[in-house]
Structures are given as C-alpha cells and as structure tokens.
Design brief:
about 325 residues, alpha+beta, eight-stranded mixed beta sheet, about 20% helix, about 35% strand, globular
C-alpha cells in the first residue's frame, strides 16, 4: 500500500535531514532536466482543462498558485482561469452559495498534474515538504510516481511523474499498475534538498488525467469508452482506467464509495465540467454520431461538443 500522511512526513524528514531551508534569493525559474518526457498530451485525445465550482474563490486561487505553481491568466468577480504560459488548466467559478457534495455522491475523485520529468516531481516534493503542505498520501503505481493532497474545498489533487514508457508492462491490452511504497529518498537524489526552487510550475506541465467517482462501472464504460472512444487499459476491483493512444489512463472511474449514486447535485462544490481535446476532426465527427445515435443530447458550441455523462458531469469535446 502507499504511505499515509504520517508516513509521508516521516519519510520526508529522514530523506531531507536537517539541512532543509528556503532560498532567500530571487524566485528560481522552473527548469526541467534532459529526461524522457512521456506526456499524456502526445495522444489522439487528452484532458485539456477542468472547471471547478468554488465557494471561497480567493482561497482556491491561492492554493493552485502557491501549491501547484500556476499563474492567473484571467480573473474577475465571477471566477479565475489559472494555467501556465498563457494556457489555461483550471477554471475556478465562484459559487458562494454552493453546497458540499455528499461523501457517497458521484463526483470528482481527483485531478492530476503531470510533471514533465521526474526531476520536476522531486523539486515539487521539496517544495511541499518545505512549506508543510498537508499531503494525504503517496504511491508508486508502476507507471507513475504520485503524491496526493486535497485543495481547500476537498477536491482531490494528484501530482505525478510518468515512468519511461519502455518500463510500462502491457499484456492483453492492459497495463500493469498497482499501489506500492514510493522510494522518496531515491526520488530526491535528483534535486537539491537544501532549498526550495519551485517558484512556478514547469513549462509544459499538463493535466495528465482525471479520476471520477461514478455510480456504475458498466454505464461509465459505455459512455467513456463506447461513446467517447477511450480504450480500457486496466480493470481492478471497483475501478476502470481508460486512455487514448496507449497512455496508462486519461480517465479513471471508480465506485469505491459511490456505487448506485444518482445524478449529481448541480449546486454542489467541485467538478463543473472538464474538456477532452480531440486532435482529429473525423474522430470528433464519429464521437458526435455515436452520441446522437445513443440518444445523448449534444450541444454544439462554436464547434465544441458539450455532453453530459450519466451522472451529470459536463464533458466538452474540443477540436485542437
């Protein structure tokens, strides 16, 4: 199993020793070492952007700026768009009267930021340890090395780096994954443990995947695989992973706490929508045809297709 928060902090203390300090010089630019870059975005489809309903907009903005290192691209009274180098990743929409979702509701499980390299992940880990962020767990999943935490309104967040694709073990169309202890000490050999130089998110850091709580795995597979066109890459008790282009997963769905969940409360905090980028027009046209034939309402918004999954999550299919 992955290490829990107490184990995480203990492991950090052992790995970092007593020499950890915060640099008092000017903010360092986020640099990536020359390592293999896998990238969830080098695929026919990928997760482009996520929209979240936020009750405390200022606090949520501060989290994604200070913890993840995103920049504010646009902000007004109704919300904010945050991302990297002018490209948006997270849109926060102010809903001061939003209600907290039930713990057994179909909802967001986590959104995942993919560090371009393992060195970038090591630098972020030192940033997390230096600033004593409340981390909920970490794990080696065989295809990724991952750290987990929650934003101020309870949305799950994963920060991870992919292992080289040559190390992914595929058999019968499925990729080997699991939950194992993360070797923090080995990871931190890649970075300077004595200083926090993670001032901003590294250039090119994308949203790697999204993980949802759903009410029924078969219905989720019919929608995201049968209609959207993602390939199933892994099945495990209570969870299915799906992707485009043999990535380990772009979308995961689980029923660990939400089996039988009905439509989501559209007043609830958390996920409002997410967009899937589609890189081929014929693929987008095929998606539209399958969705309409299945009786799924499709809204065309300037060439973008907006649909909802069986639990009311809005999915935006965007040609890029």
């Amino acid at each position: 199993m992955g290490i829990d928060r107490r184990g995480f902090l203990s492991a950090f203390a052992a790995a970092l020793g007593t020499s950890l300090s915060v640099s008092v010089g000017g903010p360092a630019l986020a640099q990536s070492q020359p390592e293999e870059r896998v990238s969830a975005h080098r695929r026919p489809m990928f997760i482009e952007r996520v929209g979240l309903r936020a009750r405390d907009l200022a606090r949520m903005i501060a989290f994604y700026r200070e913890v993840i290192g995103l920049e504010i691209i646009r902000r007004d009274e109704s919300g904010a768009l945050l991302g990297i180098d002018g490209g948006g990743l997270i849109e926060l929409m102010g809903y001061p009267d939003a209600v907290k979702a039930r713990p057994d509701a179909a909802d967001l499980y986590h959104i995942a930021f993919e560090m371009p390299t393992r060195t970038d992940l090591a630098r972020w880990v030192i940033h997390a340890a230096t600033n004593r962020f409340q981390v909920s767990g970490l794990a080696d999943h065989r295809v990724t090395e991952s750290v987990y935490l929650n934003d101020p309104e309870g949305n799950g967040v994963e920060v991870y780096a992919d292992r080289p694709e040559a190390q992914w073990d595929w058999s019968g169309g499925e990729v080997a994954m699991g939950v194992f202890d993360l070797d923090i000490d080995d990871l931190l050999k890649l970075a300077d443990r004595s200083r926090d130089d993670y001032a901003t998110a590294p250039a090119g850091m994308p949203l790697g995947h999204i993980h949802l709580r759903v009410g029924d795995l078969a219905a989720a597979e019919r929608f995201y695989s049968g209609l959207i066109g993602l390939d199933v890459t892994r099945r495990a008790p209570g969870v299915i992973f799906m992707s485009s282009g043999k990535y380990h997963h772009h979308v995961a769905v689980n029923v660990w706490e939400s089996a039988g969940a009905p439509l989501r409360d559209q007043r609830a905090l958390g996920l409002a929508w997410f967009s899937i980028a589609v890189t081929d027009r014929s693929m987008l046209e095929s998606q539209e045809s399958r969705l309409r034939e299945a009786g799924i309402p499709v809204k065309n918004v300037d060439g973008r297709l907006d649909v909802t999954d069986p639990w009311g999550n809005e999915v935006r299919l965007t040609l890029v």
